[in-house]
């Protein structure tokens, strides 16, 4: 006879992306030992940005969900995707924007060749605070300082869309295309490119304040030093 834990593991293996077939009742029937066994695969998926792993992990951990995520976050190795994604799930559970500050700091620290950096910003961070000055300032920071041209372009699109500039798709109009060219070309950013960016959005200081909060928190915890960015210069 297949026990509840084995059934969940088999379902997880069969539908690793969709996580079909999971119900709260299946998890309620688990023993403490079985719950401990299942936390690992679901946390691994959650740390990789899989939203479908959130509910099962909450069922497994109950009231310990937030404390478990905080503890595991502190022990993730440098460069782990979970350093970007786990803070987002903590924000979703607590609404404490300190977690988003840590997420943004890790996005800046991450290897520019990691393609999911853009997904983390556009698919998660923008969903949470896209209408806020913190996000607008962060996009401006990426446009000015990120070393990945694709990130610069996408951040410019996000900023224009959130500021209701009129862009519907990911195609830049002539003015914004000139801005991007002036940011990424030799000798950039050019004076003209800065004028266009400033007209779109001037820095409010909200992102800088968010980073200062993350830096202060790092001073009292075993977190990375967010005052020293690996791949981007403040």
TrEMBL record:
Region (Disordered): 213-234
Ranges of compositional bias, category Basic and acidic residues: 213-228
Source domain of life: Bacteria
Protein name, as recorded: HEAT repeat domain-containing protein
Organism annotation: Pseudoduganella albidiflava
């Amino acid at each position: 006879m297949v026990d509840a834990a084995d059934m969940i593991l088999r379902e997880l293996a069969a539908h690793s992306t969709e996580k079909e077939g999971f119900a709260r009742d299946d998890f309620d029937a688990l023993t403490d030992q079985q719950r401990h066994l299942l936390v690992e695969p679901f946390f691994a998926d959650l740390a990789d940005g899989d939203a479908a792993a959130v509910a099962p992990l909450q069922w497994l951990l109950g009231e310990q969900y937030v404390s478990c995520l905080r503890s595991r976050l502190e022990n993730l190795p440098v460069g782990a995707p979970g350093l970007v994604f786990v803070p987002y799930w903590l924000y979703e559970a607590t609404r404490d924007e300190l977690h988003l500050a840590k997420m943004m700091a890790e996005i800046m620290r991450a290897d520019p060749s990691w393609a999911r950096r853009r997904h983390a910003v556009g698919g998660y961070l923008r969903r949470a605070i896209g209408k806020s000055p913190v996000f607008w300032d962060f996009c401006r920071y990426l446009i000015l300082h990120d070393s990945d041209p694709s990130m610069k372009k996408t951040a410019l699109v996000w900023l224009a869309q959130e500021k209701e500039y009129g862009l519907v798709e990911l195609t830049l109009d002539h003015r914004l295309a000139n801005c991007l060219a002036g940011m990424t070309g030799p000798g950039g950013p050019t004076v003209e490119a800065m004028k266009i960016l400033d007209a779109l959005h001037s820095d409010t200081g909200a992102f800088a304040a968010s980073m200062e909060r993350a830096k202060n928190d790092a001073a009292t915890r075993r977190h990375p030093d967010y005052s020293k960015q690996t791949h981007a210069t403040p």
